[in-house]
Amino acid sequence: MSELKLEFVGKKVKDMYGTYIGKVIGIITDIEGSIESVSVDCGSVGIKNLPYEQLLVQGDYVIFIPRWRLDAQKLLREKSLTLKRIKALQEIVSENDSMKDDAELVYLKYEKRLDKLGENTKEIIDRLHERISELDIESKRIKSVLFDAKLQYKSNEITEDIYQQINLHTSELIEHINLENSEIKNIINKLTQQTVDNSVVSSTNEASENTMNIHNEDKETLEKSQINQINEEELDNNSVNTNNQGLHEEEDKEGIKKELEDSVPGISNTIENENENENERNEISQIITSAN
Fold first, then answer.
1. Cys-Cys with 35: which of 52, 156, 219, 246 at CB 3.0–4.6 Å?
2. Nearest partner of 17 among 184, 160, 240, judged by Cα
3. pTM to 2 decimals?
């Protein structure tokens, strides 16, 4: 068994906001030996097979990335690139009107792609709003548990120590929900603000730098080469999608996962704190196990 497979087995699994899910007990592979999913013991819930593409290994933990987060990240990347290309074409035409006919054909391709991405954006935003509703319901449930615990404590049905444990765990869960809620709203904001006018400023800066580096070249030749480059890249992308779609998607997924690895909120600090307080956590986490 490869090291990649072995690094999953026995590790605890959390979502990217710190909530404990379970422990890895095995892996599922396809006929070629590639990992399809990871089997996680979720206690009374049973065994869940989590898709490999939604998992990251960080230290002693496996981090589960929600499907909506991967889809949103991929859409942000695709939309950003398309907007940069459209903006570049607009700048080429504004600098030299004679390039209008050449640029128009390429522009139509990216405009069509942008329309498709707009439909995908709406679908993902709808899913994100549904997730916010789910989090609101979950938050009310957790607060209800805390309120009932306080009622039991005030009526002397449970000790103060038990009440403080419940208070600690429910507060942690609420914090995880708030983290996810905040990130969802941030992503919705990014998706809605991704327009041609609000596209990344860095693309303009990069274009200026390129212009300075090649200022001695003939301007029209440069613009034609830019048009050709865009056409060639479009053809290359179509070729990749046609002939190597599986490989391309796999590399894209890995790229998205790497981008998300650094965005896991406070997960490094969470792991360090939990390693330091392992004994204490084992004593007080019989009711609810969660991440600091």
1. 52
2. 184
3. 0.64
